[in-house]
Amino acid sequence: MSAAKAPAHFVLGSVQLGAQYGKLRKFSFPSHDEAVALMRRAAALGVREFDTARNYGEAELRLGDAFDPAHNPLPPGSRIVTKLHPLQHMAADASETMARAAVEESIGASCRALRTKHLPIVMLHLVYLRHAWNGAAWRRLLEFRDAGIIGEIGISAVTPQEAIAFLDDPDIKHMQVPINILDRRWTVLSAAERFARRSDVTVHARSIFLQGVLLQKEPSGWPPRCAAAPALIDWLATLTREFGLGGVAQLAVSYLRGLGWLDGLVSGVENEHQLVENLRLFEEPPLDARQMAHIEATRPAFDDWLLDPGKW
Ligand SMILES: NC(=O)c1ccc[n+]([C@@H]2O[C@H](COP(=O)([O-])OP(=O)(O)OC[C@H]3O[C@@H](n4cnc5c(N)ncnc54)[C@H](OP(=O)(O)O)[C@@H]3O)[C@@H](O)[C@H]2O)c1
After folding, report:
1. How far is the centre of ligand 1, averaged over its atoms, from the C-alpha of 12 (Å)?
2. How far apart are CA 278 and CA 265, in angstroms?
3. What pLDDT, on a 0 to 100 scale, did the predictor assign at position 43?
4. 205 alpha carbon – ligand 1 mean position (Å)
5. Is position 2 within any domain?
6. C-alpha of residue 107 to centroid of ligand 1, in Å
7. Residue 295 resides in a domain
8. pLDDT at residue 143 greater than cutoff 70
């Protein structure tokens, strides 16, 4: 089995910077100039990976403006990870020719928005695209990769089962998975051992604060049907105090960095204050083995629907 990875680094999420986003709190998203300034600030502060998608509203366009190769290129060693359009507008019985054209449209639009001829990583935004239209969209993506227009191909999973199923596919080199400190599903499925067998796959976590819910200290800030909210809030506060940490955000990040199988944590921020605060969380060490075991042993029970904002 391979050794544990280095503690996961900060990846700037961009949906909050390009679209109206969030299931519980809906603030107006930053203006074009504010978002561009925030993306550049992140790069100046050392962020080297940016997560985006074809259907995050203005996000790709704003990243392209922020890091215009002619005037303000991305710092060396940086990369933007994007996702194919989910193509939900396409009929299930559309022809393979139409599916190929839709992929070409999405990849072309990403290249134009990001002002590049090469996309280092493109993920399927939804895994159903792998087999839709007799696999035509997937095959077209592989052709783009073989032609050098895409560097590596990956998937964005909604559930642990989806992600683990794709570990059998050698074409997959990148995954984005939803995971946070409340989530026991990955441990139950022995994710650490499974991902260790695919050390060639880069794994990014999202939902690290469950769209900000984990940072809410009152049940009113949690999804309405969540009967377990008081117990979970209390558990998070108790762990934070027992471990001598600065806050729940620190606990959430140090927990994920203690897992050993994640490469990056995608952090969605809405302003510079959150960016600077969240970057600081990565200066503290990951939780140690004793603290990690304590979390697994004391996590309160709750219904899994809480882990999927789509079900709130
Ligand atoms: N592949 C997919 O299907 C998919 C889906 C969703 C997201 N993503 C990616 O993941 C990224 C992160 O999104 P997420 O849903 O996973 O969100 P998250 O990181 O779990 O939570 C982000 C939210 O937490 C709050 N927050 C962040 N830092 C904070 C701080 N320091 N203090 C207080 N509140 C803070 C903000 O919301 P408030 O200020 O409103 O509380 C922010 O919008 C996105 O930008 C996107 O790139 C991918």
Report:
1. 10
2. 11
3. 98
4. 11
5. no
6. 25
7. yes
8. yes
Ligand 1 geometric centre to CA of 135 (Å) = 32
Q: For residue range 245-269, what is the model confidence (pLDDT) as tens digits?
A: 999 999 999 999 999 999 999 999 9
Distance (Å, whole) CA 219 – CA 158: 25
Strands 264-267 and 79-83, by their bridges, are: unpaired
Is position 289 within any domain? yes
Domain containing 220: what range? 9-311
Q: Whose CA is nearest to atom 45 of ligand 1?
A: 13
Q: Is 44 exposed, middle or buried (0-12, 13-18, 19+ CB in 10 A)?
A: exposed
pTM higher than 0.85 for the full model? yes
Which residue of 25, 87, 206, 262 sits with most ligand 1 atoms within 8 Å of its CB, as the best mutation to test the pocket? 206
Ligand 1 within 6 A of CB of 210: yes
Number of domains composing the chain: 1
CATH number of residue 93's parent domain: 3.20.20.100
Type of residue at 190: S
Ligand 1: which atom is nearest the Cα of residue 278? Answer: 31
How far apart are the CA of 6 and the centre of ligand 1, in A? 23
- Residue 65 carries which side chain, given as an amino acid letter? D
**Residue 27: its pLDDT value, please?**
64
pLDDT digits (tens, 9 = 90+) for 70-129: 999 999 999 999 999 999 999 999 999 999 999 999 999 999 999 999 999 999 999 999
Structural domain includes residue 182:
yes
Residue with tokens 């073989």: 146
